[in-house]
Design a protein that fits this description.
It is built from no helices and eleven strands. It is mainly β.
């Protein structure tokens, strides 16, 4: 079994920054892509960012473009999310996810991912 563990969440004022990290443990594996999703109270889980290991190409939700940066290490199955200029609407539980192989042409769908972390809380105060 593969486990993903997120860290780095916390409380920050609007305009501040946080850096989330995700590390895999358990059996060895290789992934096609890794990503970050978030879920706020009363809302469905939404896509935040993903990195495709083929070329290291990153994609972002429109709501975080220009503010968040995803990076990682395919060999180690780790992924980070640098979050700058945080807004109260960024408040959510952030989840790291791993996609083992290409299932479709999209890395933006939560159902495309095979493993998930338990989440880390990010709270942005106004």
């Amino acid at each position: 079994q593969v486990q993903l563990v997120e860290s780095g969440g916390g409380l920050v004022q609007a305009g501040g920054s946080l850096r989330l990290s995700c590390a895999a443990s358990g059996r060895t594996f290789s992934s096609y892509a890794m990503g970050w999703f978030r879920q706020a109270p009363g809302k469905e889980r939404e896509f935040v960012a993903t990195i495709n290991w083929r070329g290291g190409v990153a994609y972002y939700a429109d709501s975080v473009k220009g503010r968040f940066t995803i990076s990682g290490d395919n060999a180690k199955n780790t992924v980070d999310l640098q979050m700058n200029s945080l807004k109260p609407e960024d408040t959510a539980i952030y989840y790291c996810a791993c996609k083992l192989r290409l299932y479709s042409g999209s890395n933006y769908r939560a159902e495309e991912y095979d493993y998930w972390g338990q989440g880390t809380q990010v709270t942005v105060s106004s």
